[in-house]
Design brief:
The complex is a heterodimer. By secondary structure, chain A is mainly β. Helices cover 0% and strands 50% of the residues of chain A. In chain B, 0% of the residues lie in helices and 53% in strands. Chain B contains no helices and twelve strands. The chains are: A mainly beta, B mainly beta.
Chain lengths: 113, 115
């Protein structure tokens, strides 16, 4: 089944403790992206990647890191999480050909206390 | 500037009625794609329907259809015979060459279906 697998679904952590949210897709998509969704602010892009070793900042990259060492994986790293990073996070992937939509992961609800 | 506008923050609709969710877009690109996504209370983002800027016919997927009016730059989602399970947030989004294929999102419409 074609899918984007995102883990964990739920995470509660403490301020300053480094964490990684994993994202993997099995569709051989070139394009991958991370979003955060906050009430009243909609979906905002954090980082995106056009292909392996090619990443770029989205609208709200501060406090986040990403890497794209393999085509299928695009982890999101919070080196020192803060309470303002409490949010719902989505990973998504897409073919770079044409205008096909993104396939989304199931989301990660992160709470930083 | 590229922008998606959804003017209906919330809607209540009686079960089995048809519902139209509004979406207008702004882009100077000639080539673009328009998408609708559904987000139920469980949180996942579900792709519903896609319309390309050069598609001459309106897209349809089961009970979903997209009323595409290019001259007016509108891409309204029509849900026929609404069901209780249609209650969710609905997002309109656009993807263009100029946006580097990134999705530009509307603020969403919260749809509640009344029994």
């Amino acid at each position: 089944e074609a899918q984007v697998t995102q883990n964990p679904r739920y995470l509660i952590t403490v301020t300053g403790k480094k964490l990684t949210v994993t994202c993997s897709q099995n569709m051989n998509h070139e394009y991958m992206s991370w979003y955060r969704q906050d009430p009243g602010l909609g979906l905002r892009q954090i980082y995106y990647s056009m292909n392996v070793e090619v990443t770029d900042k989205g609208d709200v990259p501060e406090g986040y890191k990403v890497s794209r060492k393999e085509k299928r994986n695009f982890p999101l790293i919070l080196e020192s999480p803060s309470p303002n990073q409490t949010s719902l996070y989505f990973c998504a992937s897409s073919s770079s050909q044409g205008f096909f939509g993104y396939t989304f992961g199931s989301g990660t609800r992160l709470t930083v206390v | 500037a590229q922008k998606i506008t959804q003017t209906q923050p919330g809607m209540f609709v009686q079960e089995k009625e048809a519902v139209t969710l509004d979406c207008t877009y702004d882009t100077s690109d000639q080539s673009y794609g328009l998408f609708w996504y559904k987000q139920p209370s469980s949180g996942e983002m579900i792709f519903l329907i896609y319309q390309g800027s050069y598609d001459e016919q309106n897209a349809t997927e089961g009970r979903y259809s997209l009323n595409f009016q290019k001259a007016r730059k509108s891409a309204n989602l029509v849900i026929s015979a609404s069901q209780l399970g249609d209650s969710a947030m609905y997002f309109c989004a656009m993807r263009t060459l100029d946006s580097n294929y990134q999705l530009i999102w509307g603020a969403g419409t919260k749809l509640i279906i009344k029994p």
